Amino acid sequence: MECPHIPNIKYGEFSKRLHDKVADQRIPITGTIEVTARCNLHCAHCYINLSAGDQDALKRELSRQELCGIIDQIVDQGCLWLLFTGGEPLIRPDFLDIYTYARNKGLLITLFTNGTTITPRIADQLAEWRPFVVEITLYGRTQETYERVAGIPGSYGHCMRGIELLLEHKIPLKLKSMVLTLNKHELWDMKDFAEGLGLDFRYDPVINIRLDGSQKPAEFRISPQEIVNMDMADEKRVKEWSELCEKSRGLQINPEYLYQCSAGISTFHVDPYGQLSVCEMARVPSYNLRQGTFHKGWCDFMPRVLVQKWTQQVPCQQCELISLCAQCPGFAQLENGNQEAPVEYVCQIAHLRAEALGLKVNSPDSCGSRI
């Protein structure tokens, strides 16, 4: 018998209500777990860049039992949305067991994959234990461009087959891309391809340097002006940036503290070796879940990270473009080796974006990226 007192609401409204409700309670409602840092591709821009056969990385990875134990703990603390990512998650022979365990715990699971290792067996299991969504990254619309980025011959065909299998099994799917100097000429073709299949498509043109400090990925960055030109050429993207600016207008930030986002407040990240951090970008400092519990890491370690204060005066503290900028302690640490040092690249993008949107900004005189 149906209950007439329970209203039907759209997912977006449900999600917003829930996030708003827990915002002030510091509940880790959303998390990311990297099940491996290894990958079967060798992408030019990868910020991890470990091969599938890296034995040292393999030996250090969390076991299936350890991962399931962490899943138990995060569920107990209130996690509802969980992202499985890598590396390439599907190269782990035990991934489907880990995935199914998490689904049985009631988690809404997003899976990030390059799609090249999806088999009929994997598609069958995903169809039986449906994910919230699978997101596959495209590196090009043509085989030549895709494999120039991915670095592995034959990978384009495997990716296309993976997409076909998920569509055949009616698994929720989205496509996305990282925009590089190597594939920027095919961006709109990738978008048309995705939308022609009835799928959402998004792209990210802001490339990070590698976790080991290598600057190699920066060689493939497109210019800040090209990024903003792409924004302005996409009506949906212009609308999203405009709405974000309007929503953020008048919001006050606390310039005393380094962290201004939801990292460590409602979200968390666990790397393949059991290190808990506030987010995927800011991996230092971290808490070892092999030596302690998630509860202790969340309740004792995370707050100590979040109360870090600025130790120097930087323009970011008073900048009006915080909603348009990717500047954060994690990005700054990767880029400059200093979590307080402004990242010139993203600063330039933010100022150009503001100009394109017609925003009048009073930038601090000390900002090196004024335009």
3D architecture notes:
It is a single chain. This protein folds into 2 domains: 11-222 and 258-306, TIM Barrel, CATH 3.20.20.70; 223-251 and 311-371, no CATH class. The protein is built from 13 helices and 11 strands. It has helices spanning 11-22, 55-60, 64-76, 95-104, 120-128, 143-150, 155-168, 187-196, 224-232, 235-248, 294-306, 329-336, 344-356; strands spanning 30-34, 38-39, 50-51, 81-85, 108-113, 133-138, 173-178, 201-204, 267-270, 275-277, 287-288. Helix 3 (64-76) packs parallel to helix 4 (95-104) and helix 9 (224-232) packs parallel to helix 13 (344-356). The N and C termini lie far apart (63 Å).
Summary, kept brief:
This protein is of the alpha/beta class. It has 2 domains: about 10-220 and about 260-305, TIM Barrel, CATH 3.20.20.70; about 225-250 and about 310-370, no CATH class.
CATH class descriptor name of the largest domain: Alpha Beta
Helix content: 25-40%
Distance between the termini: 63 Å
Named CATH architecture of the largest domain: Alpha-Beta Barrel
- The best one-word shape is globular
The CATH H-level superfamily of the largest domain is: Aldolase class I
- Identify the strand order in the major beta sheet: 8-7-6-5-4-1-9-10-11
Instruction: Provide a count of the helices.
Output: 13
Order of helices and strands: HEEEHHEHEHEHHEHEHHEEEHHH
Largest sheet: 9 strands, mixed
- Measured by DSSP, the beta-strand proportion falls in 5-15%
State the total count of DSSP E strands: 11
Unreliable runs, pLDDT <50, ≥5 residues? Answer: 364-371
CA-based gyration radius: 21 Å
CATH topology of the largest domain: TIM Barrel
What number of domains? 2
Query: If you average the pLDDT, what whole number results?
Result: 89
Please identify the structural class as seen in this structure.
Answer: alpha/beta
